[in-house]
Amino acid sequence: MSETDKVGDGRLSFREAVAHVMQKGQPVFVAMPVFGERTDDEQQTAEGARIFIIEPDGEGDWQVRFIAGPFFSNAYAANEVIVPEELPDSVRELRFMPTHYEPNWLDEQVQILIQKLVRASGIEAQLPDYEHAPSQAAGPEAVFPISFIGKAH
């Protein structure tokens, strides 16, 4: 009996995840929250996420796509491919979910990418609908001081 069967949650060990990718040609993923500076505040929330997607490399092997960035921003700290021999051992200890994704999803904000990966995996999860949330912007009456945007008077 595999670890997955014992847990019963559908997540795959790293070894099982790589086997899934190689046999079925479909990616697997894991997402981990990133917290800012640790405080004693019990209500501290995640500021961003790290996402690891194991996927076929197109040449008969596999690779890991690593994406990281803050929530509610289109800025990414990382969006790169890691080849198997450069993968840290800490990633090999994670548990992955089968999914699929479209390349244009990688242009989305981190929380929307996670939402789409979760939906594509078939997981029954209660996630806010970030993709269809109304956007908020300053109205035309809003004035920002020049110093706020970094230019001298």
Structural notes for this entry:
The protein has 153 residues and is α+β, with helices and mostly antiparallel strands. Helix content is 21%, strand content 21%. It has helices at residues 3-7, 14-24, 89-92, 110-121; strands at 28-34, 48-56, 62-70, 78-82, 97-98. Strands 4-3-2-1-5 form a five-stranded antiparallel β-sheet, with helices on both faces. The longest helix has 12 residues, at 110-121. The protein is globular. The termini are far apart.
Average pLDDT rating: 80
Low-confidence stretches: 1-7, 142-153
DSSP strand content: 15-25%
Largest sheet: 5 strands, antiparallel
Roughly what percent helix?
A: 10-25%
User: How many structural domains can be distinguished in the coordinates?
Assistant: 1
Query: How many separate helices?
Result: 4
Shape: globular
Radius of gyration: 19 Å
Order of helices and strands: HHEEEEHEH
> In order across it, which strands form the biggest sheet?
4-3-2-1-5
Distance between the termini: 69 Å
Structure classification: alpha+beta
Number of strands: 5
